[in-house]
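Design request, tokens follow.
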């Protein structure tokens, strides 16, 4: 509003701008925005934080699907530029992480956990060891287990006879028994029971269940959707 802008974008400097929407900047003004260009005009990526006035509705209603068959937000921004609307920008000076790929989510999770504060609201029995920065939600129970932070555990989750290693986020109503988990994200109502190999670098959706099954070979990396069940061999 101060700059009488129709659209304000946040930009982040990246090593691989060809993966993003990329602005071309001249005299501190954005003159063009291109989605995933083969030859980027700058080292900046449009980070995904946008502020618009009502002109964006005009832009969205007039753009066409791209060669990829998608309506591109970069095309909406370019429409604004082509029709005389003003786009301003600011640069993100702290860390910023794109989460377009599974591993990016784990890395973003690591960055967030690395900067959180400790907060213990659940129960930890005398046979458990909790070290580092750890958050445990109300109603959760840690029984005969080791929790090595940074770790966040939601509400009404039970960790029993298990190890939870650094950079792990576990949401509400999960159960982990006789298992080990590290550098992973578990969403709501996940169950990991009697798995005798450590689960690392893994993303588990809602209501995922991993249990032990006999036989070989064994594996320990997962990318699992909602309401799935996996038996570990």
């Amino acid at each position: 509003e101060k700059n009488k802008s129709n659209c304000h974008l946040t930009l982040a400097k990246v090593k691989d701008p060809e993966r993003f929407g990329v602005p071309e900047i001249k005299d501190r003004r954005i003159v063009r925005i291109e989605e995933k260009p083969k030859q980027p005009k700058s080292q900046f990526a449009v980070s995904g934080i946008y502020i618009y006035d009502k002109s964006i509705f005009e832009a969205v209603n007039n753009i066409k699907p791209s060669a990829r068959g998608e309506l591109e937000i970069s095309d909406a921004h370019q429409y604004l530029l082509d029709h005389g609307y003003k786009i301003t920008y600011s640069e993100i000076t702290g860390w910023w992480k794109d989460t377009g790929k599974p591993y990016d989510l784990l890395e973003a999770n690591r960055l967030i956990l690395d900067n959180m504060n400790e907060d213990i609201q659940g129960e930890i029995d005398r046979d458990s060891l909790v070290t580092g920065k750890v958050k445990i939600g109300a109603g959760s129970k840690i029984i005969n287990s080791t929790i090595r932070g940074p770790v966040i555990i939601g509400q009404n989750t039970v960790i029993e006879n298990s190890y939870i290693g650094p950079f792990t986020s576990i949401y509400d109503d999960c159960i982990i028994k006789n298992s080990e988990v590290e550098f992973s994200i578990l969403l709501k109502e996940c169950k990991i029971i009697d798995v005798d190999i450590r689960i690392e670098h893994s993303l588990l959706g809602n209501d995922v269940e991993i249990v032990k099954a006999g036989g070989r070979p064994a594996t320990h990396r997962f990318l699992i959707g909602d309401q799935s069940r996996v038996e570990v061999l």
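Comment from the thread starter after seeing the answer: thanks! The two ends are 59 Å apart (CA to CA).
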